[in-house]
Structures
1.
Amino acid sequence: MNSQLAKILESPHFRNSKRSQALLRFILESALSDDHAPLKERSIGAAVFGREIAYDTAQDPIVRNAAIEVRKRLAQYYLEPEHAGELRIDIPIGSYIPSFRVESPAAEPIEQAAPALANAHKWMLAAVALALIGIAAAFLWTTRRTPASELDAFWGSMFRDGKTIQICIGQPTRLYRFTGPRIEELNGLLGAAAGLARDTANLSISPAELTWVAPEYLFLRDALSAFNVASWLQSKGRPYQLASVTATNYSQLRRAPLVVIGAFNNQWAMRVNAELRFAFSRRNDGGVLYDSIDDRRNPNASQWRVAQPVTGTMTEDYAIVTHVFDPATENTVISAAGIETYGTLAASEFITRPEYLGAALRAAPKDWSRKNVQFVLGTKIIDGAPGPPRVLAAHFW
């Protein structure tokens, strides 16, 4: 195990991230010492990141954010063909107790396999031991967490036909790059600090000097949201396919269930929510432009909105999670969509972590799993990261 951990930490995926290295090392050492008590969010925050033992994990999500990063780096590591036969280490979503499994390497030719027989029994014993550790970790996790039945039921209609689930990721809509002979001049002028050097009052830019490049990019938090969903589907052994919104068309949506990431930057999310009780809108109020979530049953309410353009002082974001059967595509659609990308990331955690969805469904109708549902979520923004999702409203029909 130590050699495998060393190999992972020395790989390009972990080499330059001290935070990911520290978290993965602590998790594995605690798990293999049979002491799972430290593998709780607050304990990890104190032991690995120097937080006070009684710190507020809701206000400081450093452990959750670091775990997302570690899961992403592990997934990238094991995607490389040279690591296919290695011991696989996974950190299940919603848990900090690792699981272990051994991928079967390609079969060796018979004439090359003979020298390895002497080590076969040791390898088999190691594999059995690791399997038992994984089973024990899974058992401990299932006995300590909120039952996942609500989360499984929420996703049940997506899994029913065994189809490949489409994950459609929103993209920036207003993103341009300078082109032409004045590239350096314009970049220098508009990239300069405020002051005389940035006096652009009389600046003239022709359309020929701009090229639209939005389809080439994703927002970081939208990408992390898609990763959360993909990791959850992978943990359930479900096939999925990632695609940007610009690469997704209607004929594709007719063939499979859809998970939509993003709101104003994803036309499919806007279409799915457009006629429902909770929907997104953009409005001018007293000369200030807002992006909002509207409640059609309370059209005068305006508590869920974010002023545009967004500034560095933004402290709260809002999101809609929708689970609905879409008659236009004849498939189930789940939408995780924030006004800004903070809300989208919080929404992705809400639909992939049993403790969040389980708490939200305690007051739901008994037959909720056979209904369409929308949740309005709020999330506090602390040091540029979203906190836990909070349910502000729910509607079942």
2.
Amino acid sequence: MNIETLVEKWFNLNPKESEANLNAKFTNHIWDLLGYHFNVTPNISPGMKPDYVLFDENNFPLLVVETKKRNPELAAQEGINFIEACEQHNYYKQAWGCPSLPNNNGIFQYLSVIDNPAKYGLIFNGDFWQLFRKVDGLIVPLTEVQKVTAETLPRLIKQLQHYLQNPNKGFIVSMWNRKGGVSKTTNTINIAAVLSAMGKKVLIADFDPQTDLTRSLGLIPEKYTNKLLNCLDSLQKDEAEETKIQLQDLIQKQQFDIGKTGKYFIDILPGHKETLEKFSENEGDNAYQMTNKPTAIKRLLSYIAQDYDYIFLDTSPKADMLTVCSLFAADGVIIPSDYDPETLRHACHINIDTIPKIRSQRDQKKSLIDDNYPRVLGLVFSNCPDMGVKLKKQVKDYLAKFSLNIYQTELRHYQATVLAKFHRKPVVFHSPKSEISKQYIALTKEIFFSNRLLTA
């Protein structure tokens, strides 16, 4: 079986092919081409039977698949009309698991099963396909819904090969708002710390020239002068092994103790002011020169992404090259904000303008694999006082105009947070029973463990 034969089999399908015939005549051959062991309609939970589950060499589930029968009306649509028609059609809604449909199970429900460790999901009907990724309790579309054509089928196979061969790539998160003073760095440190305490392997990268994150966790930025640029030098020379060695040497493992028995670790990629400023400059004698600069951090992190469950990127409020690189590298973006209208304006602008532009530019770069990252995970209110009734209504009315997920957990301002900074610790490690620590735990669970399908 090869891709040309697969495309030919698709051409020979009936426009009204039933689901059973679609699978027998075509879908089964996808798995033959990929070379993965699969089960047909396995029972992964009471009442839940996806059409396929693919397994790795250790017989662990990798991919769950839901198929539907073909529909000539969908196949006749083109371009944006096809996407809109799919999103309104019951076949598509049933495939991903729209909760408004009665007695319906789809990819969302299958990937939400606690005992199902599959990392990816695919919906397919011979007219459309879409890939999804599971990150603990967060289910993220890897692609927009795609029309099945002779051109997109090879792309689907390429995507599946890439993801199935790299199932453990760390989920990269950027915490960003163009407005300063919204606890961007503090949130990054403490969400990472909560995940570490939950047993996750976590890396935090400091790409803010102020290097507050580096100092906040007890490291001295001046010890790491030009080390990031040395990694990028090797990256530019395509010296894969040397790049990885230098990057691993730069990353520092910090141990944080809770009481006498609790020991937790966070890996830190430290920042250095002049080094980061040199990279961020595009022109001038002091600027670090490299081709395809916006993809530099994404390419660099690809060497160690398999070593982590989560990678968090801390950047400055400036929309400079460092920020562009961080957003290019990110899978998800969390937007911290307070109640100030200007801060909220910046937050909403990120959601409706900045991130769509980054996604479009990433698509044009074709740097690694075609996905539709970064995705905005949501807005978190940070460093906030108590909100009165009038202010609460004003903020709610303002945000109602934008399609933006708002986390229910709000982070208040507490002295414990500041005290922890003096001790160079995340507050969740320094004062684990404090109210702010409880809020960070609740927020982390809400973001990553609440069984949510990201649709925006």
